[in-house]
Amino acid sequence: MSTQTPAMAAAPANPSANRRMLLMFGILLVSYVVNAMDRQIFPLLAADVRKEYGFSLADIGLLSTIFTLGMAVAGWPTGYLLARFSRKTVLQIGIAIFSVGTLLTAFAVSMSDMLLFRAATGIGEAMQLTALIAIATTAFVRSRAIAVGAVNASFGIGAIIGPLMAHPALAAYGSWRAPIILFGAIGFVVMIMITFTVDAALTEVEGRDNGAKLVGGATTLMNRNTIVLTVLSMIGGLIIYGYLGMYPVFLREQLHFTPADTGQVMSIYGLGVLCSLIGGWLGDRFSPRAVLGLAFLAATGLGYLLFSSAASFTAQASLSFVWGFIVSGTIYVNLAGFHVKSVSSQLADRASGAFVTSLYGAAAIAGYLIGWLAGLGGWGQAGLLQVTLLSAIAALLSLAIRPEAMSVRAVTQ
Asked: Vertex 43, ends 181 and 158: CA angle to 5°?
């Protein structure tokens, strides 16, 4: 049964209460920073894992992105769980599953159990992310895309910190397992913080913010905008996680970057992701056709330059920064935000689940696919097919979105 009450539906109007809401939201964002730290370090450590176990390039690509299969499986059901249990409860369970799966990864003995543990982390992340997006978009109605941008910016912070922390731990203990265990343990610390500092005034609010409420939007998920955005999210999953899953392997094995240089490039990518607040601002103020269409168009050129043209550290670092802003900071953020905007506020939880399932369902095969393509015809061809071509198709599909059918904010007395 739902834990939400009418009292929870009205967000506080006084400055002190608003500051408290932002502080609680900040603590939730810290939980996603920890998540991102693990997400970034496994691809960074993938070459070491591959060497120890003798995995193929395609196998390590699958391990790098298999967690997205768990996210795809859990994303949609989590939307329904959120209709029956509090968002805080679902989020906490998700963090616990993610942290346990991360710790167990360090003790895997074969490809099969490592795949299982990595997939389990995806189930946990789906629960955490779906709840977090629902909280962000219903607690901060005035700036929903910016709120999602803040969630993604926290991923960027983790993407910066993760590689920087992983390299010293790897050097100190001489094992790729040390950073994995460290970040898994931190997850439980964050759970304790959330338990005692975050309450229903933030997590269970329903589509109101200081006198603003939502009107319009589809009353079912079977609508034109959601369908188009679902296809775009699937393409986005292949693009984003083709990069995240295998780009560090490309740097180390194709361009022969050192682990330290690879970590620095990925941290600079994280700096680009910090621009997610700008990407969210764009989504709150301009047409989804223009924002997604132009961003996907930019991704077509970036894909070619990353995998076929640039070879120096400076070039790869610069392109990765732009990739972080355009692809992760703008495309990802606004796919999530527009999914929620496409429906009425009552369907926000389920729309978040649909976004997670569609994007991460495709992402589950992204690492394997780009690794297979690279093994077949080289990294240049892999980037051309999986990033450049798919981005061009997505740019055209963005024109089919109907902005006038999305929910909007109406100010009440």
From this structure: 65
